Amino acid sequence: MTGLALLIPVALGLGLAGLFAFFWALRSGQFDDPDGAANRILIDEEVDDRA
Amino acid sequence: MTAIPSGDDFAKHATVLAVPAMHCAGCMSQIERGLGQIAGIDSARVNLSSRLVKVSHSADLDDRDLVLALANIGFEAQVRHSRLDAPVSAVKPLLAPLAVAGFAAMNVMLLSVSVWSGADGSTRGMFHWLSALIAVPAIAYAGQPFFRSAWKALSKRQTNMDVPISIGVIVATGLSLYETAMGGAHAWFDGALMLLTFLLAGRVLDAMMRDKARSGVDALLSQAASGATIIEQDGRVIWSPSGDLKNGMVMRVAAGERLAADGRIVSGNSQFDRSLLTGETTPIIAGKGDDVLAGTLNLGSPVDVIVTHAGEDTTLAEIARLMEASTQNRSRYVRIADRAARLYAPAVHTLSALTVLGWLIAGASLYDALVIGVAVLIITCPCALGLAVPVAQVVASGALMRAGIMVKDGSALERLAKIDRALLDKTGTLTMGKPVPDPDTIAEMDAREAGIALTLASSSSHPLSRALAGALTARGVKAVALQNVTERAGKGVFGEADGQQFALRRPETAEGTAVALETGRPSSRLVKFADRLRPDAVGALAQMDQLGIKTSILSGDNIPAVAQIARETGLSAQAGVSPAEKQEAIGRLREAGYNVLMVGDGLNDGPALAAADASIAPGSASDVGLHAADFVFMQESLVAIPQAIRASRATMRVVKQNFALAIGYNILAVPLAMAGLVTPLIAAIAMSASSLIVVGNSLRLVRAAK
């Protein structure tokens, strides 16, 4: 019983943390351009004079 | 001056450009870096999902500078008009409710599993209270999209799919709270939350597919002339957007530019390409005093045109109005999901009401009867039904998108699947809609002649020069160095080498479209230009035939040009058809019981595209064409049409299977629920399983676009 009293709040707290992280990401516009975000990682910053 | 007519002050120095051609990381970095290096441009940020570039820049750069800068980088771009600004996305407002419902459902399920596995007495009570603590606020928040829609329907004395969902969720929550307070054995919080999660997931998918398709097409829109160069009375030359054009203004139309308004030529004479407007491929020659129409392309030399009809009065706008009128015809189409919902909602209500009544008559207490009634409402949850259509459509349109075909509306897949008659426009649809030099003439040229032609053609931006340069480059011709290459408007391109004069000029006598190439030989070589069939056109038509679709040509072009294509493709054809007649032709076929597909690109096809049951346009189509069509294919090959038809038929097969699965599950589960045999555990498992099966079945469509 004491285990539950500790674990349930911890589980809920972690879940809530994830939920808030998601809300933050949503608000800060991270879902505005999913295709772009997926491709941006491929852009090589070093090779500047290639184009 | 650049100004996006929107409220925010950042817009003063920011321009949003649509760049439909970008599709990869390479394009993104090229555009962002290329623009960043230009003086006056502060920064450029690409949004790949919507194919837009937002450029913040100093006030002395205008729209055209930016379009030109992008053209130099190698991308065709259009300034995004205010009327197309940020289409309202239905996804974002649904994401937060989905996240909340999902989070709450998982946690409550965790607690419920403990209860089912034997938690008893005070532990069960505590778990139920904890569940209530999580579920009640979550339901209040995540259920809003359904509650609002249900309320709207009820206040209009109608029902929709959201009404049974809302009643089920609210009654289940209420009864669960009562159970919890009384220390009862069952609570239904998990069921209510799961229901919301699955349904919200279905809606998000549905909205995502609409957004995705629309954003791609939006980026393509607005290809008609966005404005014109105006000569003021004091001789000043200014750029004016087409919305600001007024009758009596004089616009200077350069070679290769499209007219932004109807008008009369006051000086100069030139050839005009009216194919966008009428489908006619032979250029017409017009001089001082002749009328020219908005949307036509000036092929020859610069002319000054006095505006006679601007904005809403142009022939172009007239066609748009014709189109608008026939779109309403199609909006009466009822989507499968809506039809199902219309039947489903009353059936579910009746069933659960009968269950409650039946149990009351059989002597059960009001509470017990209500619990069983709610069980029926929840187990008949339209989760699987709600997912049946959107998941299949999202997967299929994703597959089509990868194949270069954009679906503008989910219902388009349903309509296309039923097609049994197709009408094809000629110019720009069956053919490329661009002049292509006669391949035989090019093959006859020797290396030096071809090299000279390439050097001359590549130093002009005239459409014919560009087409010739493209054809020569494709053959691997090497350019020859020439001196003093100059372009004289309306005459041609001239150059010299070793004291010899060369020219690529307008021929003195020409039938159709042609240029004369002078390379120092006694007689000049005449290079004829003609429109050519799209690649695989014949193969694509054969596939249409296999699909059981009768196809014919419906073109606004003149009889000889259409007859030529009809011979090449073996289709029956109708030539010289006006936009209104095209619309009528479709109306007649529809009355004869056919489901008609219209494939076209031009302004003249707009009304027909809107009137047909389904419509497809190539990516090179006019503004109006793109707007009216349900599908837009980006590749050059015409195979896109049978491909889209096959994919939509496959989608409909899967949708029907999904419905069968969802309904089959209900037929099994409902009697059990009505008999009062369903425990929350069984209800939850059955519900999730039916939804997952539907999703799994829909995933088979990943390879639909083959």
Count of distinct strands of chain B: 26
Which geometry of chain B do the CA atoms define?
elongated
Largest sheet of chain B: 7 strands, mixed
Distance between the termini of chain A: 65 Å
* Overall mean pLDDT of chain B: 79
Tally the helices of chain B: 24
- Alpha carbon gyration radius of chain A: 20 Å
Explained architecture:
The complex is a heterodimer of chains A (51) and B (706). Chain A has two helices and no strands. By secondary structure, chain A is mainly α. Chain A has a domain at 1-26. With 706 residues, chain B is an alpha+beta fold. Chain B has five domains: 13-79, Alpha-Beta Plaits (2-Layer Sandwich); 91-219 and 336-385, no CATH class; 227-311, Calcium-transporting ATPase, cytoplasmic transduction domain A; 405-420 and 535-634, 3-Layer(aba) Sandwich (Rossmann fold), CATH 3.40.50.1000; 434-531, Calcium-transporting ATPase, cytoplasmic domain N, CATH 3.40.1110. Chain B contains 24 helices and 26 strands. Chain B has a seven-stranded mixed sheet, sandwiched between helices. Chain B has a six-stranded antiparallel sheet with strand order 6-5-7-13-8-11, with no helix packed on it. Classes of the chains: A mainly alpha (51), B alpha+beta (706). Chains A and B meet through helix 1 and helix 2 of A and helix 1, helix 3 and helix 4 of B.
How is the topology of this model organized?
The complex is a heterodimer of chains A (51) and B (706).
Chain A: H1 2-27, H2 34-40
Chain B: E1 14-18, H1 25-36, E2 41-47, E3 52-57, H2 63-73, E4 78-79, H3 92-116, H4 121-142, H5 144-155, H6 162-182, H7 189-220, E5 227-231, E6 237-241, E7 250-253, E8 262-267, E9 270-273, H8 275-278, E10 284-286, E11 291-292, E12 297-298, E13 303-309, H9 315-331, H10 336-361, H11 366-379, H12 383-402, E14 405-407, H13 410-417, E15 421-424, H14 426-430, E16 431-437, H15 439-444, H16 447-458, H17 463-474, E17 483-488, E18 492-497, E19 500-505, E20 513-518, E21 525-533, H18 537-546, E22 550-554, H19 559-569, E23 572-574, H20 579-591, E24 596-599, H21 606-611, E25 614-618, H22 623-628, E26 631-633, H23 640-674, H24 680-698
Parallel strand pairs in B: 15-22, 15-24, 22-23, 24-25, 25-26
Antiparallel strand pairs in B: 1-3, 1-4, 2-3, 5-6, 5-7, 7-13, 8-11, 8-13, 9-10, 9-12, 14-26, 16-21, 17-18, 18-19, 19-20, 20-21
Helix pairs in contact in B: 1-2, 3-4, 3-7, 4-6, 4-7, 5-6, 6-7, 6-11, 7-12, 7-24, 10-11, 11-23, 12-23, 12-24, 13-23, 16-17, 23-24
